[in-house]
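Here is one such protein, fold included:

. . .
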Amino acid sequence: MQLQHIYIKQNRTIIMKKTKYIILCLSLVLLFSCAEKKKEKEAIKTSKPNQIEVLDFYGKHRCEACISIEEKTKFTVETHFKEELKLGLLSFKVIEIDKEINEEITEAFGAYGTSLFLNVIKDGKETHIDLTTFAFKKEGNKEAFVKELQTMIQNELNKL
């Protein structure tokens, strides 16, 4: 009887910990979803050649979803765009927002916490496409994430 009582207490503790973790993750998703910025920012002039930069911004403290977004993005780029990577038409960059050296690019994109962007550079102009909400919505489904990100990148590459 006493062992059963201890077992029930342990299960309650485990359930409470899992519940807190789930609430934290859902809060982060809600935060990023509610803070959605304009999908595309106005073009910025640049001297870079035509290309697309896939930019994954992150902070020091990362949840599982944030890490998963980076992994799925890297997988998509390296698996489906090998030729574009070799030709320099596409690049993938992971940027820690808390580092002083990244302050300028972080501010230019308005990145906070985990943020995912496509930086489309065409004819001397940069266009920032914010994919953060997409990334958090699809993060739990690798197949959908990869397929949709692949389509978005390919659509932008077709416009170069």
Remarks:
- The chain has two domains: 1-34, 44-159.
- Helices lie at 2-34, 64-80, 82-87, 103-109, 132-138, 142-159.
- Residues 52 and 90 are 5 Å apart (CA to CA).
